[in-house]
Write a structure and sequence with these properties.
The protein is mostly helical and about 230 residues long. The chain is built from ten helices and two strands. It has two domains: about 90 residues, Arc Repressor Mutant, subunit A, CATH 1.10.10; about 130 residues, GntR ligand-binding domain-like (Four Helix Bundle (Hemerythrin (Met), subunit A)), CATH 1.20.120.530.
Length: about 230
């Protein structure tokens, strides 16, 4: 019988368990760089967990460069030695699920960098995506609706415009968790959301003008209330 995932904490623990078992499998089978792992279905049956959980655990190991998935071919051990791999997996297993404060700090650090780069590198196509997200956010806020997702779509458009694929990837990774916590803590109440319209527009205008210093300053102003709120949660 496969393990049922009921809570986020359970899900996090199951992923760690699967990662640990994949490590043990690699060691027991003496798999070397380039060797193929059993299929997701076989691992799912062997570990008695769902295929989706196996897939997510593999994706995490792939993100850290320990595995490599090739479409239509399977998942392979990356080109890294056994000692290094075991050490890195041990570090991964010790990682904790990020809390709200950590997410906010990470987001602020990332976005102060991405907004500067976006001001320097943005294209007309990037501006259209930012404006579309900004308009969607404004419309929902003025109608009194929740606009957390539209808010983050605007920020993701900025990350995309930065031209830095690594920063963009990090933003995509933490975005779902940010949405969950924003809704949990009711961060974007109507007052803050309405204020956010003007702040978003100021950031957008600075990027249009290709002024990285102004763009960073407007982003800092935008995050000031959020940062203060985070430490009062």
């Amino acid at each position: 019988m496969k393990i049922e995932i009921l809570t986020k904490t359970d899900n996090f623990d199951v992923h760690k368990t699967i990662i640990s078992k994949i490590r043990d499998l690699i060691n027991q089978k003496n798999l070397e760089p380039g060797d193929k792992l059993p299929s997701e279905r076989m691992l799912s049956d062997k570990f008695e967990v769902s295929r989706s959980n196996v897939r997510e655990a593999i994706q995490k190991l792939e993100f850290y460069g320990l595995l490599k998935s090739i479409p239509q071919s399977g998942t392979f051990v990356a080109n890294i030695g056994v000692i290094a791999m075991n050490g890195m997996i041990e570090d991964i297993l010790r990682l904790e699920d990020p809390d709200f404060k950590s997410l906010v700090e990470t987001r602020i650090l990332l976005e102060l960098k991405t907004v500067r780069l976006a001001a320097l590198r943005r294209t007309d196509k990037d501006l259209k995506k930012m404006k579309a997200a900004l308009d969607a956010y404004t419309e929902k806020v003025l109608e009194g609706e929740d606009a957390v997702e539209e808010d983050l779509l605007f920020h993701l458009a900025i990350a995309k415009a930065s031209g830095n694929s690594t920063m963009n990837t990090f933003m995509l990774i933490i975005t779902p968790e940010i949405i969950t916590n924003f809704e949990k803590y009711h961060v974007c109440d109507k007052g803050l959301a309405t204020q956010g319209i003007d702040e978003h527009m100021a950031i957008y205008d600075a990027i249009v003008k290709q002024d990285p210093k102004l763009a960073k300053q407007k982003m800092k102003e935008h995050f000031s209330v959020l940062y203060q709120y985070c430490y009062n949660v």
